[in-house]
Each structure stands twice: as C-alpha cells, then as structure tokens.
Amino acid sequence: MGFHYRPGHSLGGIPGPLPGDEAVTRSSKAWHDTQMRIFTALAGLGIFSIMLLAQPPQDGKKGPPPAPKNLQVLTVEDLRSGIMRKFAAALGGNCETCHVPNDKASDDNPHKVIARHMITMTKEINAKFPDGKEHVTCYTCHRGAHEPAMAPPPAEKPAQ
Questions:
Q1: How far apart (Å, rounded) are the C-alpha atoms in residues 99 and 131?
Q2: pTM for the whole thing?
Q3: Coil, strand, or helix at residue 87?
Q4: Less Cβ around it within 10 Å: N or C end of the chain?
C-alpha cells in the first residue's frame, strides 16, 4: 500500500488505493514502463556509441601502399598488373621462392638475382617479335615447376 497524493486534502496523502484509482494506476504504470524501455534503449545506444568512438584507431593504413624499393628490372606498373602472381604460378612456388620473408627489397636470396636475369632474357626475346606481343614467359620453360624442363618428357611406350 502506498500513499497517493490528492490535491486539496490537508493530509497530503491518503493511505491505500481509492475507488476509481485502478485505471489511473494501470495507465501510469504502463506509461512508466514505456519510459523505462525508451530510457534503457537510449542509454544502451549512448554507451555503445561512446565505446565505439573511444576505440583507438586501427593499424590499417589508409591511402596508397608504400612505393616498392630496389626495382631493377620490373616497373611499378608491372607489379600492379599482377606479374608476381604470374611468376609464382609459372614457377610452382610462392613469394619466398625469390624474396626474403618480411623484406621484399632484400637481395639476400640468390633466386631473386637469377629471376632478374631470366626476366631480362624473356623481355629481350619478346622485344624481337615484330607484333609487340608477349610470346615467351616464365611458364614457357618452367611449366609450373621450380626447375625448367631441359628436355621433353620421355615418350610413353605403346601398349601391347
């Protein structure tokens, strides 16, 4: 039992519900519940927003990637064209076949120096074709293997 304020009464509150107060109590309780739901939703949204905005910036850098270093045979345009993926597929390897992990500019892997000679060789061969097309690639000799094939595979013997 609670006290209900009734304007005009000298006591300022009358104990217990009065006749006719049930509808008022129910509607005010529903109004109070609605206000609490709205308040809870807004408070949760506010806390979530603060947490989201208070996070430190991510390490992901915006903008263009850094310029490649130690390019001697290839151009930046070659790199953008996906040529490294073509090399990896042609040689049946991955980046570490020629590059030092975490330091692509390093020349410490001897395969990188050999690759430069081979790229120069294919460019010189292709420059001799009058149509300007690429006729010789790493795949021409390597066929997906690290070591190029030096001779055709042996012929299969006919079945008897």
A1: 33
A2: 0.56
A3: helix
A4: C
